[in-house]
Write a structure and sequence with these properties.
The protein is of the alpha+beta class. The protein has two domains: 35 residues; 135 residues, Nucleoside Triphosphate Pyrophosphohydrolase, CATH 3.90.79. Helix content is 22%, strand content 42%. It contains three helices and twelve strands, in the order E-E-E-E-E-E-E-H-E-E-E-E-E-H-H. Helix 2 packs antiparallel against helix 3. The radius of gyration is 19 Å and the shape is globular.
């Protein structure tokens, strides 16, 4: 690797429920030493799920880091030892009350590679059936269903303002263009 940075020392600054923060001393490709603050995250999934009438299932929730409510596709953190597809099925049911036996992976992406190793695996779910909503004790969500046009308007208004949801909406739009 041409630009590899070798970690020569590492200090854990914080170990949390969702993320850990580590400070790395690294040797740069030119031999100099620098510091890197790295947020470690176990990874996550996001699910773009469709109702029988082709609406997209989303959730509205307050995001403390942003100090506002946003609308997102259902998503959640990987648990230790859990495969992304299992997490996607679990999170879909927990947040929306819908279950599926058919998930299609549409891609993965790193959220902020400059300081975090978090990767989000995005799935698509079409054939849904009733399950049970079981949000976490500290999780409050409102279920909403939108058309693709309504999703575009929510992006324009800033109500949808996160990468995973925008990535999923773009996927749907491209897929529809390819299939027309």
């Amino acid at each position: 690797m041409k630009f590899k940075e070798e970690t020569i020392d590492k200090e854990t600054l914080y170990e949390g429920k969702i993320v850990d923060l580590n400070l790395h001393d690294v040797r740069l490709p030119n031999g100099e030493v620098s510091k890197r603050e790295i947020v470690n995250h176990p990874g996550a999934v996001a699910i773009i799920a469709y109702t029988a009438d082709d609406k997209i299932i989303m959730v509205r929730q307050f995001r403390k880091a942003l100090e506002k409510e946003i609308i997102e596709i259902p998503a959640g953190k990987l648990e230790t030892g859990e495969q992304p597809e299992e997490t996607a099925k679990r999170e879909l049911e927990e947040e929306t009350g819908y279950k599926t036996d058919q998930l299609t992976k549409i891609g993965s992406f790193y959220t902020s590679p400059g300081f975090s190793d978090e990767i989000v695996h995005v799935y698509e779910a079409h054939t849904l059936y009733a399950g049970t909503v079981a949000t976490d004790d500290d999780e409050f969500v409102e279920l909403i269903e939108v058309t693709l046009d309504e999703a575009d308007k929510l992006i324009e208004s800033g109500d949808i303002h996160d990468a995973k949801t925008m990535f999923a909406i773009q996927h749907v739009k491209l897929k529809r263009i390819q299939n027309s």
